[in-house]
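tool_call: predict_structure(chain=1)
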Amino acid sequence: MPRCSRVPSSCDRAATILGRVLDRYSNFFLASAGASAAFIGLLFVSLTIADTGEQDPRARANRDALAGSAFAQLINAFFVSMGGLTDEVRIFAGLGAAMAVFGLWTTSRLLPGVIRAGNWARTSPVRTTNIAFPVASIVVYVLQLAFAIGLLIYPDSSALLRLSVVVLLGLYAGAVARAWKITRTT
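tool_result:
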């Protein structure tokens, strides 16, 4: 479909088509917003259970980073899903871009503490997951940012819209994996 020109009928037609595409995902966005809110609550419960009497600073730093990054991913999914419910592609894309930047910022703030605590050291028993989790997060956030910027530039691209929706699944996968890890040995 050609880009929206200044002619109102062309813009209206593109908005109608994309409104229908976003409308196809309305049930997904509704379920996603509710699920992310529920997962945030469960994350706090798992932190309460897992935080009883932990004295090892390495384990505490790892747990704090896991919880912070899981929280950031769930907040990201929540706000982007809420943006999808507006039926406005630019709002959805704008929130996606903003939340991707927030996720990258959060990751950059959490990583130094984990590294300083020695969780990336060769002797760390959980070194592989401590490296894999932030790398996977960065990849998901960069993809989210790229797709969101693409949607802001080409708001009539249904392919970019679908890819942006798929990124939400990556956010959930990362958040659930981190929450699971919190309840296991760190």
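agent: The chain has a mean pLDDT of 80. Proceeding to next step.
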